[in-house]
Write a structure and sequence with these properties.
Layout: E1 5-11, H1 18-26, E2 33-40, H2 46-56, E3 61-66, H3 71-80, E4 86-89, H4 100-110, E5 115-117, E6 142-144
Parallel strand pairs: 1-2, 1-4, 2-3
Antiparallel strand pairs: 5-6
């Protein structure tokens, strides 16, 4: 079954911050999503945290580990293995609010977007969005149809 959205999470030595992201992902609706985690050669307990999360969510979480090549090449490597029409790169120190995936999938399912990028969701558009904001963010969608 093809999924609409892949959550792509590159990690590197993330054992201190990754548990918060994994907790925030634990109760999301994955019916149209898959989680793909790529560990960039961590030397701490990152791999075991990811493996435990994957074991708790079989069929939802895909995992790979490779030698350290850096964040850019890791993201490119991840894109090579993704088959869904939409990808959301999530940093290992982010947090996803409850219901955010369901809202995002709903928006993506109704759109014909070729590209969408955002630095933050405004709370008016998605009250369940994460808290991180880029300093210059106005919290608006930027999309090209």
């Amino acid at each position: 079954m093809n999924k609409l959205l892949t959550l792509a999470i590159p990690t590197y030595n993330s054992e201190r911050v990754l548990p918060r992201l994994l907790r925030s992902l634990a109760d999301q609706d994955y019916s149209k999503c898959i989680v793909f985690v790529s560990d960039d050669g961590s030397s701490d307990a990152t791999r075991s945290l990811i493996q435990a999360f994957a074991a708790e969510h079989p069929g939802v979480v895909s995992y790979e580990s490779h030698e350290n090549i850096g964040i850019g090449p890791t993201r490119n490597r991840m894109l090579d293995g993704i088959e869904s029409p939409y990808v959301w790169f999530i940093d290992h120190d982010d947090e996803i609010r409850p219901g955010c995936l369901a809202k995002l999938v709903q928006v993506l399912g109704k759109s014909n977007l070729k590209f969408s990028g955002w630095s933050a969701w405004s709370t008016a558009r998605c009250p369940t969005a994460g808290r991180r904001r880029h300093p210059t963010s106005q919290g608006r969608w930027r999309a090209r149809r």
